[in-house]
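Hi F.,

I've been meaning to write this up properly since the lab meeting, where we talked about keeping a consistent format for the predictions we share between groups. The idea is simple: the sequence comes first, exactly as it goes in, then the structure tokens exactly as they come out, then a line or two of notes. No screenshots and no reformatting. I'm using this chain as the first example so we have something concrete to point to.
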Amino acid sequence: MARTPFTCAYDEAAGTLTVSGDLDESGAWELRDRLASLIAGHARDLVMDLSCVRSLPSAAVGVIAAARADMRAHFHRLDLVAAQGSIACQVLPRSGMVVRTRQPSD
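Output, unedited:
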């Protein structure tokens, strides 16, 4: 299976970070750095859309869990959203994280 490049894009108006592609170990560190900069300069809740993530290794799960803890420490939430049946909906709840499912048209 061909790899899909990891990307993340932030929509400031919506407060949503959209993550897509194969989130391998190097992508996890890139995501960590992006989340750290958003959390440091962000004074509201943040939504992370993981609907188009194709792989989610343990390093990425740890980055997401740490970012959620950092947001809580600043009295904000990191809401996780993903398409029903996606890898995020399969993996993250096993780590105790709530993932809100969305329909493909959302």
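Notes:
The chain has a mean pLDDT of 90.
Strands lie at 7-11, 16-22, 46-55, 78-83, 99-102.

If this format works for you, I'll send the rest the same way.

G.
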